[in-house]
Design the sequence.
């Protein structure tokens, strides 16, 4: 009903203002106006382009130099190394030796030789380049001349030198002379080292070897050595050694001063 009323109102208005030329009737004019599209253009929203991100700097800002005390720098090899370039810490831990070459001089006592007093000198773990091969040699004797032992051994550490636990086969030559027997020949064995504190500060070493193995003069030697650093280069060590020969069982207890080389 409302639609019919609106249509009638439109026809009446057309009749009042007149029919333009070319229109046959008011109804025809109204039909044309309803069917013709509007001439007003439809506004379209165009999205504005997003702002481009600012490019990042290709090169980071240079670090400001640190003003260090020359005396502190001269006395600290660690600082000098870090200033030259950051080290590969993981590589250093694995490859830098956890123990150092040591020169040894000590007092020995031989309980099986009526508590005879003696001495021992030697070198331990002289490195061959940057490999796991080291050379050790030593001499020990009683002051009364009843006992004398000397020899040279080569060790090859199987694990990276920086590890806290390492194992090495031992091959060398040793001479043992006592008032009861004499043995000399190839010395073959194995060494186990445990390092509670790196770079020679503390370690425990156990070595088991056999001189002239497979012969009637074979002698088994078991040595336990414990060392602890009292200064950056000086260590105090203790040796406990047992020798098992067919003729007699011997033992040795020693207190040793060790000077560690760089």
Sequence:
């Amino acid at each position: 009903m409302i639609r019919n009323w609106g249509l009638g109102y439109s026809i009446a208005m057309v009749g009042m203002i007149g029919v333009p030329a070319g229109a046959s009737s008011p109804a025809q004019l109204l039909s044309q106006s309803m069917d013709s599209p509007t001439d007003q253009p439809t506004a379209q929203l165009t999205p504005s382009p997003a702002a481009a991100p600012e490019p990042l700097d290709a090169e980071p800002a240079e670090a400001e130099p640190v003003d260090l005390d020359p005396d502190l720098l001269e006395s600290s090899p660690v600082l000098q190394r870090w200033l030259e370039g950051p080290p590969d810490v993981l590589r250093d831990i694995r490859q830098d030796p956890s123990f150092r070459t040591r020169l040894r001089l000590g007092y020995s006592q031989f309980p099986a030789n009526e508590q005879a007093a003696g001495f021992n000198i030697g070198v331990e773990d002289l490195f061959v380049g940057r490999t796991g091969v080291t050379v050790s040699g030593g001499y020990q004797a009683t002051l009364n001349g009843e006992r004398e032992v000397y020899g040279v051994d080569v060790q090859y550490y199987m694990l990276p030198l920086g590890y806290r636990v390492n194992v090495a086969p031992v091959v060398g030559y040793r001479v043992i002379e006592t008032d009861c027997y004499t043995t000399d020949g190839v010395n073959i064995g194995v060494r186990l080292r445990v390092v509670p504190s790196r770079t020679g500060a503390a370690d425990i070493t156990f070595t088991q070897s056999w001189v002239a193995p497979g012969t009637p003069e074979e002698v088994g030697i078991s040595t336990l050595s414990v060392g602890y650093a009292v200064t950056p280069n000086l260590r105090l060590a203790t040796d406990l050694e047992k020798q098992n020969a067919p003729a007699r069982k011997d033992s040795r207890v020693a207190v040793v001063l060790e000077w560690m080389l760089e």
